[in-house]
Fold:
Amino acid sequence: MRRFYRLFLVVYSLLWVLPAHGDTSSKCPDSFQDLAISLSQDLPSYLNRTYTRLKINQQAIVASLPDLNPLPLVTGDRNLPSPSQMFISVLSGKVGQTKSETHPYWLFIVKTEKGWRLAMAFTKTGNAPIQDISDGAIADATSTWLRDRCH
Structure:
């Protein structure tokens, strides 16, 4: 088992330096709906690379199709465009364990002159208040995907 785990780590480390799906020159989707669908398909592999790099003992298994129904937002500056919003669930678990959990995420993405970028990310667990995870693993994975595909 220990040899398998070491082999797994070596292969995963090599995957970190390779493109997510072989072709990083893929065109960035023009519509937010197409972008959200592509992101949800690629997100588990990007998230797993982020977990490996950050030494988080977690493994993303699959992401749901995105829900694009926006939450109502109150912004102070009416001249700023509202970010595009997507809700996504990621099924994940601890490496080497069979138990898995679904984690909800709200991603707020804006289109800039240089392409799409992540503005904010949030999650909610149980009865706990909503947490800003804009500097967490899901945000890092999303930003990396946007950089690879849309910059």
